[in-house]
Amino acid sequence: FGFPYEERKAGRPTKRVNPINDRLVSAGAQMGFAAGWETPYWFAAPGQTPEYKPSFQRTNWQLEQSREYEILTTKVGLADLTPFAKFNITGPDSRRFLDYAVAGTIPKPGKTSLVHLLTPKGKVYAELTVTCRNDDSFLVVTGGGNELHDLRELRRILREMEADVNITNVTDDIGVLTIAGPKSKDLLAKISDSKVDDWKFLEARSGKIGGVDCLAVQISYTGELGWELYVNLCDIGALYDDIVEKGAEFELGHVGNRVINTLRIEKGFRAWGREMNKDTTPVESGLLPFIRFKKKSDFQGKAGLLEHMQTVPMKQVVHMAIDGSVTNYEPEGDETVLCEGKPVGNTTSGCWSPILNSGLAMASVPCLFSKPGTKMQVMLGGVPRDAVVLSGAPALTHSAIQSAKKKQMKSSLAN
Length: 415
Known about the structure:
Blueprint: H1 21-26, E1 29-34, E2 37-43, H2 60-63, H3 65-74, E3 76-80, E4 85-90, H4 94-101, E5 112-118, E6 124-134, E7 137-142, H5 147-159, E8 166-169, E9 174-180, H6 184-191, E10 204-209, E11 212-218, E12 226-232, H7 236-247, E13 252-254, H8 257-267, H9 282-285, H10 302-308, E14 315-322, E15 336-339, E16 342-353, E17 358-366, E18 375-380, E19 383-389, H11 398-414
Parallel strand pairs: 3-13
Antiparallel strand pairs: 1-2, 3-9, 4-7, 4-8, 5-6, 6-7, 9-12, 10-11, 11-12, 14-17, 14-19, 15-16, 15-18, 16-17, 18-19
Helix pairs in contact: 3-8, 6-7
């Protein structure tokens, strides 16, 4: 058997070694394996040795995660996201190709969109971000584990279209760092040659950051204020060093992928392979707000999705809070959800939620049990643990908070 999140060291590292690997290890990184890359899962506290202590209960890194969480929610955190898969879509028909390939909005130059690629039958094949450099050049980004899966489908769609488009896999050529947290804008202003005060959510800009050429997008999987910085892999060391040097003024701290996952669950962000996959529709996954039925272009899976929408969905993704007295276990996904002792669904993701001070799960359950306040149970450590369905994600994103403040200000001025 294998312990949760257990890592095997044989045969590592592979050929996909980030140039800043040694710097990250020196900063206390406990490395994990992701799509052939070494990537920081979490960081040990200063003076401590990064190590994984195997356990089926909450173990060392989970108990210490509050430190990285505090960095991201009160200061500014730095994380390596280089394992992202990245594709360049170029050519005069690039916009037309992408408009058909995905069900969402293709952004204008200097903008980024979160979009979904559907199967011909209307299920969720992939979740992507699309950044428009210009109408003939786009950067498509997806999860590292989905690299060949998503690339294959994009190329298949292209083969069936008469389109002058080139799809180039640049995953090994581009590194990605992210800075996130309330002080991330102050840090970016220190290292960028661009004015950041008017930088809007999902806006993409090219320029010098840390003294090297970067494509920067205001977006963060944490749901906090943050930027993803795309840089030639050979330049990532210079960018990293400048961020660390200038970030000291803002109490910069390193954070790993595990705490990013915690924050995305608290904010309600779906993850492919968890809340959505090729067996679920956007209706069941809660992704309908991202589907643009009225856009001028047809898109793959539109007819299939409309057919699904003629029937009542059988299940729905919900948030569930685990009883706060359960402190030695936390959900991670794929646990059985029960009602009156009978299995009715499964968790899709899970974590210990600092904002709730309890376990938090996202779960796929029949719509009958999706009403807020519904009492259920989740199997943790082989024992059914009490849980309750929440009305939604327990935390708001930075953009949602800012939007609410603007509405409140307009309302106050109107009165």
